[in-house]
Amino acid sequence: MTVAAIAARAQGPGTPVRVQSQPSEGTPGPSEGPAFRDTLAQAVDRVDGAQKAADAQVEAFVAGETENVHDVMIALNQAELHFQLLTEVRNKLLDGYQELMRMQV
């Protein structure tokens, strides 16, 4: 609804309100920007990459190829944080879905 339609509605109960059927130019359409699916897939790929990098550093440390245990621990903690963030995003998405399913129409 436009501001004019809201103002007309506020003036009297019998005033008809016209609803915009087309989104205005400032409103993003469904084709603008990356799709949510793509953004989520990229996030999962980043988490997977962090996990694989941490595993590679652990294997290199165990094989004796590197002696810096600090870098290994940092990589493991970063991978854990990435995974925790992804888990929380998943939980929020499920909570939102369950809330939608509880709504009565």
From TrEMBL:
GO molecular function, one term: structural molecule activity
Pfam families named among the record's database cross-references: FliE
A GO-annotated cellular component: bacterial-type flagellum basal body
Biased composition (Low complexity): 20-34
Gene Ontology BP, a term: bacterial-type flagellum-dependent cell motility
PANTHER family, per the entry: FLAGELLAR HOOK-BASAL BODY COMPLEX PROTEIN FLIE, PTHR34653
Protein name: Flagellar hook-basal body complex protein FliE
Organism of this sequence: Rubrivirga marina
